[in-house]
Amino acid sequence: MRESILTIPVNEIFEPREGCPVCRMRDMLESRTIEYIMGAAMMEPDVRIETNRQGFCKVHFEQMRACKNRLSLALMLQTHLQQLQKDVFTKAKTGMFESKTAKQKKVSAVNNDCFVCSKIEWGMSRLMVTFFELYQKEREFRELFASQEQLCLPHYDMLVANGASALEKKWLGQFVNDCTELTKKYLDALEADVSHYCKMYDYRNTSKNADWGNSKDSIERAIKFLTTR
Ligand SMILES: [Zn+2]
Ligand SMILES: [Zn+2]
Q1: Which CA distances in Å does 165 have to 6, 42, 161?
Q2: What is the pTM of this model?
Q3: Which of 15-24, 48-57, 89-98, 196-205 is least confident?
Q4: Selection from 13, 29, 23, 5 nearest residue 131 by Cα
Q5: Which of 92, 119, 201, 202 pairs with 166 at a CA distance of 20 to 30 A?
Q6: For 174-192, how does the pLDDT look when each residue is reduced to its tens digit (9 = 90+)?
Q7: DSSP label at 20?
Q8: Which residues crowd ion ligand 2, with CB under 5 Å?
Q9: Ligand of minimum distance to the alpha carbon of 114
């Protein structure tokens, strides 16, 4: 696989200041990987070996299914299933050379791994190195980070955990503060919107001119804040 498709300038990801920047990073890596495998790469033998071995998670199968190229997906599934028949469920070749545990490992890789998730993880770990370098080196980048709209809860957790080992002591305190501020600010606004939404179900708020304020999509935004999706 051409790993270059997973290199994205970190600065560009932080420019829009809309939603969680790490979600944007993930979305970018995700859509590039999906586009890549749904294109010509689907037919490349080395990619096929990897997709057969790892399979895909439900989220990424759904994203692939939403692409126009259904034949690509069907062909990929065909060899994926055939590989399972051959590697795990063929009786003739068992016993002698391959132990039960080796087969079980293959099954559990298909069940638990995902080709797209592993590419995202790979790309993310590299972008994170650049991210922490920029944070330490450039005042402008620190300001850009602090001026984000929000950090979702899983990515707050991820940044604070990684920051502890990636940042020099000198920057860690400020970084954790920045992260906390971004998450807390959004959490408070979100909580107010969800509470407002609940209140709108009150009998006194049933008129046509009832003011829903910012609350109409608050359920969706709360789920995204809590799960990244
Ligand atoms: Zn996020
Ligand atoms: Zn996945």
Answers
A1: 24, 37, 8
A2: 0.91
A3: 89-98
A4: 13
A5: 119
A6: 999 999 999 999 999 999 9
A7: -
A8: 57, 60, 114, 116-117
A9: 2
Buried b (16+ CB within 10 A) or exposed e, 53-62: ebbbbeebee
Q: Which helix (H) or strand (E) holds 151?
A: none
Distance CA 229, CA 219 (A): 12
Per the structure block, which two tokens stand in for 20? Answer: 């969680």
Three-state secondary structure string covering 110-141? HHHCCHHHHHHHHHHHHHHHHHHHHHHHCHHH
CB-count exposure of residue 192 (10 Å: 0-12, 13-18, 19+): middle
What's the CA-to-centroid distance between 115 and ligand 2, angstroms? 6
Q: Mean of the pLDDT values across residues 42-67?
A: 93
Query: What does the alpha-carbon distance between residue 217 and residue 204 come to, in Å, rounded to a whole number?
Result: 21
For residue 173, what are its two tokens?
């305190």
For the chain, the distance separating the N- and C-terminal CA atoms, rounded to the nearest angstrom, is: 26
Domain boundaries of the chain, sorted by first residue: 7-138, 150-229
Q: What is the mean pLDDT of the chain?
A: 92
Query: 3-state class of 181 per DSSP?
Result: helix
